[in-house]
Amino acid sequence: MMLCCIGCEWHLQSKNETSSTEFAIERFDLVEARYLSTGDVAALQQMNTEYPQQTRMLIEDLLQLGSVSDAEINQRFLLYFQDSTLQEIMSEVGRQYSDLSDIDKSLASAFASLHELLPQIELPVVYTQIGSLDQSVVVGQHMLGISLDKYLGADYPLYVRYGYSEHQRHSMKRDFIVPDCISFYLLSLYPVPSDSLRHQHMGKIQCVVNRVLSRLVFQNEHVVVAEKKMAEGYYSSYLQMLESVD
């Protein structure tokens, strides 16, 4: 299984046509929080039956607690989140993200624009989860998971306490969820060709994100170069730009 974790992998069916009215992020985080807060066996059953891939990616790949087939894994998962800091984070996620309608709408629009730009790509299923401040977005098996614990605001006290720099905290807020989703989904589809071209390639991806969102989310010298080449016809399409090695 390919899993791409991005530090700082909709409910949308895997099909090429969708509208904003059909789009809704899977609220896996709500079921997860119910189990981790109360030990609700019904919530655990729902995780395993309705969200088996999400549960496996969270436990095995993101938290690295062991295999979901381990006899003691559910208790291990529950005990892991009894930590007071993680309980505080779950509570804050519940407070800030009780309503995701704005992000639903923004992501639906962004992925529709992305599909117009790159019609050949398969759109992912998007869901929310709660991690332990490990990764912001995880991508795997045509699924994209948003770790809401990494988007609690630039001034969230726990981020400051745990040593996140001001630069890091700048993007750890609600406004960056949509840009991060588009950025890292594109990165999973068009990975960095080599370490020497890392910055140039990220500039291309960020150029596409700016285009999809119709605003300057990312501004740096590599984005400027990519935009200039695109405007001057150096690339015949955004697909060629992302696939090129230069």
Task: Describe the overall structure.
This protein has helices at residues 28-38, 41-50, 52-62, 73-80, 84-96, 101-117, 157-161, 166-170, 177-189, 198-213, 221-231, 238-243; strands at residues 4-6, 125-129, 137-140, 143-147. It is an alpha+beta fold and 246 residues long. It has 2 domains: 4-187, no CATH class; 192-243, no CATH class. A 4-stranded mixed sheet has the order 1-3-4-2, with helices on both faces. Helix 1 runs antiparallel to helix 2 (41-50). Residues 1-21 have low confidence and may be disordered.
**Average predicted confidence as pLDDT:** 91
Decide which structural class fits the backbone: alpha+beta
> Number of helix segments?
12
Order of helices and strands: EHHHHHHEEEHHHHHH
Percent range for β-strand residues: 5-15%
Radius of gyration equals 19 Å
- Number of domains in the coordinates? 2
Task: Give the CA-CA distance, first to last residue.
Answer: 29 Å
Main sheet overview: 4 strands, mixed
Helix content: 40-55%
Q: What is the 3D form?
A: globular
Low-confidence stretches: 1-21
| Assembly type | single chain
